[in-house]
Amino acid sequence: MTDINKNNIDNITENNKDEIKIEVKNLNFNYGDYHLLKDINLFFKKNSVCTILGPSGCGKSSFLRTLNRMNDYTEGSKLTGEVLLDGKNIYSKSVDVVELRRNVGMVFQSPNPFPKTIFENVAFGLKIHGIKNKQFIEERVEKCLKYAGLFDEVKDKLHKNAFSLSGGQQQRLCIARAIATNPSVLLMDEPTAYLDPAATATILDLIADFKKFYTIIIVSHNIQQAGRISDYSGFFLDGELIEFSKSGDFFTRPKDKRTENFITNRF
Amino acid sequence: MLKLKLNHKDDLFKFILSIFVFGIILIFFTVVTVILYYSYPAVSRFGIAFLWTKEWNPPKEIFGAATFIAGTFMVTIIALIFAIPLSLGIGIFLEEYCPKFLKGFFTIIIELLAGIPSVVFGVWGVLTIVPWLRKYIEPFFKSHFSFIPFLQVTENIGYGILAASIVVAFMVVPIIASITKDSLAAVPKITKDGALAMGATRLDVIKDISLPFSYRGIYGGIILGFGRAVGETIAVVLLIGNQAIIPKSIFGVGYTISAVLANTFTFAVISPIYASSEVELALILLLVSLIVNIIGRNVLQKVIGGKLSRAQFGGG
Ligand SMILES: Nc1ncnc2c1ncn2[C@@H]1O[C@H](COP(=O)(O)OP(=O)(O)OP(=O)(O)O)[C@@H](O)[C@H]1O
Ligand SMILES: [Mg+2]
């Protein structure tokens, strides 16, 4: 297994190493006695979209949450190995988790707006990070809503409760909220799982566009979707990374039989 | 209901259960009717002035509820002033900070506290709170804060409004704390995670997400606590000093509606108007408790029980 991982990495390292945004090294993760993630090694390149695939329960969400230390609060969780963000281990003692999460945004499976107005939702991160300048906040909120393709739909009701929006709008609001703190990485855990095809298409277009600004890591159940929008794809099975490569190779010439089975069963 | 086919066992069972339910409703209306009926002579004789007449003089047959209303009001408010911050603190700690294995333990302790008979609380208050107030708190206030209205110490006996309020507060804390805990538990984890993922600290999450999400539930818990404090009797009888005066200080003695009923209703029956006046006190208490409980339960129902109507929360 480890050999296959190493091969994957070697393939990628042939490219420019400066372009690496996140490097995961020998990552092991436990929920109590349950050893879930086993010896994960991979890279995420700057300004790329990477999709994490795998059957339900294989540890995709758990893996994603190791990248912004969301498991810090999970009782009994244990992690070894390294996650290097711009070359710096995010699990080292000197790292400020608040600053880490400013830099690594997260969008969740179902829209989870805060019980606040649309405006306050987007401004939340700025407030948390101590920004008080009203004009700056207003400009930033507008800009992020525009980036998320939501501004025109909500510009007349910025001070209405966020729950008054449709599911698709709420999810775009959550994206606007996540980019408001100017992160360089976006983690998305099945961001379109509960949306209808039209709302899904809108969000996928956004993601393709966002590559210019962010390194994007998406968990997805939808193989076609992954093939379409992502530059790299990884396949998890029972907490192991079975295969990780450029999406072109991943979908047309999978190296591992299990990856092939997974892809073909679903196509 | 009248067309029940009694030959089916199921229907028979249903019929018997219906009778039980009907019985409960009957009891409720009987209580209300009896209280209304027996309070009528006092209501018609003293009118609305009953509420603000200070004198309570059985020999002269002058009856007014003002001293008891004032005492009840003071005990309830002061008890809530102590109980609310304490309960919110406990509820927030249990739900947001407490390690799992301790949470279960503390929750059981709180439930046990809620089940302690109030007379036991009263006895405990007489043995601990009263001497503590008499020896330390009252002398301290007497020498340092005697210029502040409502905080003057005249008798320095330990008994009084404050002693009763402190003990009632302890009886109310389990109610508000457990409802606070449950309301906070009903806040969706994904919403809290959303805030944490933005770099919010746990304190930010509590302040900006959990409390705005659950304030209705907490509010309902406070109202139920209010209902409990208003009606609390035996502990108050043991602690408040039982004098029909309007207290000028929280250290003063006083009386509450429930306490005067418990102490004197057995003698009151000798005189029809005396008895009727006491029943009118009971009527006031009944109305306040009913209203408070209806409001409290309505508020709670909207929040707990999985029916979080999300759209109703927050600033918009
Ligand atoms: N907080 C937790 N404590 C203990 N076990 C957990 C916890 N969270 C997840 N697990 C377990 O870890 C495993 C992986 O969960 P995870 O949510 O990472 O899977 P997933 O690949 O994202 O699945 P899905 O596609 O269904 O979202 C599952 O068996 C799950 O039961
Ligand atoms: Mg998942």
From TrEMBL, chain A:
Limits of the ABC transporter domain: 22-263
Keyword match Nucleotide-binding: yes
SUPFAM superfamilies for the chain: P-loop containing nucleoside triphosphate hydrolases
Pfam family, any one: ABC_tran
CDD domains per the UniProt record, alphabetical: ABC_PstB_phosphate_transporter
A GO term from the CC aspect: membrane
Keywords per UniProt: ATP-binding, Nucleotide-binding, Transport
Domain of life of the native organism: Bacteria
GO MF terms held by the record: ATP binding; ATP hydrolysis activity; phosphate transmembrane transporter activity
InterPro entries xrefs: AAA+_ATPase, ABC_transporter-like_ATP-bd, ABC_transporter-like_CS, P-loop_NTPase, PstB-like
Keyword Hydrolase: no
One of the GO BP terms on file: phosphate ion transmembrane transport
Protein name per its UniProtKB record: Phosphate ABC transporter ATP-binding protein
Native species: Candidatus Acididesulfobacter diazotrophicus
From TrEMBL, chain B:
Gene3D superfamilies: MetI-like
Main location: membrane
Transmembrane segments: 12-29, 65-93, 105-133, 157-179, 218-240, 252-275, 281-300
Gene: pstC
Its job: Part of the binding-protein-dependent transport system for phosphate; probably responsible for the translocation of the substrate across the membrane.
InterPro entries: MetI-like, MetI-like_sf, Phosphate_PstC, Phosphate_Transport_Permease
Subcellular location: Cell membrane
Keyword Transport: yes
A GO cellular component entry from the record: plasma membrane
Its membrane topology: Multi-pass membrane protein
Keywords, ordered alphabetically: Cell membrane, Membrane, Phosphate transport, Transmembrane, Transmembrane helix, Transport
One GO process term, biological-process aspect: phosphate ion transport
Entry's Gene Ontology molecular function annotations: phosphate transmembrane transporter activity
Residue span, ABC transmembrane type-1 domain: 69-296
Source organism superkingdom: Bacteria
Similarity section: Belongs to the binding-protein-dependent transport system permease family. CysTW subfamily.
Protein's UniProt keywords contain Transmembrane helix: yes
Name used for this protein in its record: Phosphate transport system permease protein
